[in-house]
Design a protein that fits this description.
Order of helices and strands: EEEHHEEE
Number of helices: 2
CATH topology: Glutaredoxin
Largest sheet: 4 strands, mixed
Protein name: Thioredoxin-like superfamily
Distance between the termini: 24 Å
Strand content: 35-45%
Organism: Babesia duncani
Helix content: 10-25%
CATH superfamily: Glutaredoxin
CATH architecture: 3-Layer(aba) Sandwich
Number of strands: 6
Number of domains: 1
Length: 73
């Protein structure tokens, strides 16, 4: 999404558990869909972080909003 030609979303941090059941959907996304998303959106910095036995979450960093934390379970 852009406003006045400036991309609003700067970076995304995806935290997930490799063994937790609640992270199954995010693990699928990381393995099968993330590459195509990164190719279509090179302006967004995407990082992943493995957190053992933690609920999956995404932390979005926008131009106007410092951080937005969203639980994905």
């Amino acid at each position: 999404m852009s406003s006045g030609g400036i991309w609003q979303l700067q970076s995304v941090l995806l935290r997930y558990s490799e063994t937790g059941h609640s992270s199954r959907g995010l693990r699928y996304y990381l393995r099968h869909l993330l590459n195509s998303f990164q190719l279509r959106n090179p302006q967004i910095e995407i990082t992943t972080q493995h957190e053992q036995y933690e609920l999956p979450c995404a932390i979005f960093k926008y131009v106007a909003i410092p951080k937005l934390n969203v639980q994905l379970s």
